[in-house]
Amino acid sequence: MKKWSLIFLVLILTSCGQDAERLLGDWKVNSQYYKATYQFAEEEGEIIAKVLYYNDGTSKYHWNKREPWLLSSKIEQDKPFFVDASTGATQQISQIKFQLLAKDSLEMSMTAFNGVSKEIWTKVENLKTDNK
Amino acid sequence: MRTLILISLAFVILLGCKKKEEELIVNQAPTMNQELKPININEKGFDLLDNMQGHWVGRNQVMAWDFEWFAFDYRAISPSHTFGIFEGGTMGNLFTSFFVTDYKNTRTIMARNGGLLHGIYRTSYFVLDSVDYSDGDFYRLVDAVGGTEVMWMELRFKNDSLFFNAYTSRLGQITPLRHMTFKAKKEHSELAEQAAEKYHFPQNVLAWEYEERLNEEYYYLNAGDVKAKTATFMSQGLDTDVIQLAHEAGDPIRIDEHPSLGYLKVDMERNTQIEGTRLFAYLSYLPLTDENGYMLNNFQSVLLFPELNNNEDSFLFTYLHPGDYYITIIADKNEDGYVSAGDITHPQTPITIEEQGQHQISIQNINIQN
């Protein structure tokens, strides 16, 4: 399994290395409805999206390694998008797409309940995560 | 979104070995292994009823729709039941009411949520299962059958603010996603206070004996299911009366059994100026136009705000709190989707809704261009 993961990472980094590098890092959501900061990180040869902070007004979360929240556990590139391959695989639920815009911004679009909602995320300086 | 987070959280906790082939199970339907424990409101949580009261104004995201202005008008309709509704007009309506009942041998609060959307009648029942006072007043109500595996709503009251979120799963077919995010402030409380005084609200007395009324044979079943995942009741019929639909759905608490609430049928005459124009049919507690039909800056007083398609000339308000209103029809002449300069209105028109009254009004002079 690890071998395949390594090959996957190599494929990403060679075929779309610059985009993948731009994706990695911390991103703040610009939303009227909730606050969140996500982090695209490379772990065990795959790109995942961690939730560093989430607050929708009734639920709050700060990154905690013992209780990790992930927006996606497997992100793949499907030009010109990065897609959440873990949710799209079953075709039951939403499909999340990330499209890099300017240097420090991306558009997240999520298909759910027969509609598409979009958010603009802005890159922020890497935040220190509490890996307690 | 949050559910995607929770999906992965569950995945990491339950399948800690992280085998990639096992990632594909994260979107499975509910396992229905959750044990539901209602909160005993003799101990805590009864204050949800009083907290909910008032005219809440803010913005609302429902699935992919963004309502930049949105309101719920919560008022008591009995000593232990408060009710609020969104009347969308052509699209249908959506209500959530909160009431005292007994469930699983516990005195608690349940929510009745549903409405009539495009001819589909649905009501779902939720039970209070979490209360927390550490950061404002927080309440969670979960599907009375499937719990958080199917759907739930969360409310947090802090100072004069309300955060009201709902998470749904297509009635148990997928893992829940955040469905509604309503952020609001209490704009007005006088109407709610009047209703509370009238009904001696809130009291810890049974509003409905839910379990006695419940016939589980009517629970909605997803295709292929033999056991219900959700406390939901559904029926369908584009030309069927809502009361008939309620009977067909086996709804334990039907619209015609509600105390206090009335009906208003509004007929609108379309003249040549507004032929084929979208209409807003607003009910407010202050007049939105003057005696000559020109708009006043009172739109913060709007309580219900349905939109009617270009060819509709009649609308029925249901579940309507009794009281004094102004009915204002606004033709969206410039088709910008908002009330704005250029739109066509009429002189202010007051109307009083009696308790459980059935009313009708005709608006024939929609001809004043602002």
Descriptive labels:
heterodimer, A: 132 residues, alpha+beta, Lipocalin, 9 strands, globular, B: 370 residues, mainly beta, Immunoglobulin-like, 5-stranded antiparallel sheet, 5 helices
Distance between the termini of chain B: 42 Å
What does the largest sheet of chain B look like? 10 strands, antiparallel, barrel
Tell me roughly what share of residues is in helical segments of chain A.
10-25%
From the alpha carbons, calculate the radius of gyration of chain A and give it in angstroms: 15 Å
Shape of chain B: globular
Mean pLDDT of chain B: 90
Largest interface: A-B, 38 and 41 residues
Oligomeric form: heterodimer
**Name of the CATH first level of chain A:** Mainly Beta
Describe the structure.
The complex is a heterodimer of chains A (132) and B (370). With 132 residues, chain A is of the alpha+beta class. Chain A has one domain: Lipocalin (Beta Barrel), CATH 2.40.128. In chain A, 19% of the residues lie in helices and 49% in strands. Chain A is built from 3 helices and 9 strands; from the N terminus they run H-H-E-E-E-E-E-E-H-E-E-E. Chain A has helices at residues 2-15, 17-23, 85-88; strands at 25-30, 35-43, 46-55, 60-62, 70-78, 81-84, 95-100, 105-112, 115-124. An 8-stranded antiparallel barrel of chain A has the order 1-2-3-5-6-7-8-9. In chain A, strand 3 and strand 4 (60-62) form a beta hairpin. In chain A, helix 1 packs across helix 2. Chain B is mainly beta and 370 residues long. Chain B folds into 2 domains: 2-257, no CATH class; 262-369, Immunoglobulin-like (Sandwich), CATH 2.60.40. Helices cover 11% and strands 43% of the residues of chain B. Chain B has helices at 2-14, 48-52, 190-199, 210-213, 242-249, and strands spanning 54-62, 65-78, 81-87, 93-103, 106-117, 120-132, 137-143, 147-158, 161-168, 177-188, 232-236, 262-268, 279-284, 302-304, 307-308, 314-320, 323-331, 344-345, 350-353, 358-363, 368-369. In chain B, the strands form 4 sheets. A 10-stranded antiparallel beta barrel of chain B has the order 1-2-3-4-5-6-7-8-9-10. In chain B, strands 13, 14, 15, 17 and 19 form a 5-stranded antiparallel β-sheet that branches. In chain B, strand 5 (106-117) and strand 6 form a beta hairpin. The longest helix of chain B is centred in the first third of the chain and has 13 residues, at 2-14. The two termini of chain B are 42 Å apart. Residues 1-28 of chain B have low confidence and may be disordered. The interface between A and B is large, with 38 and 41 residues.
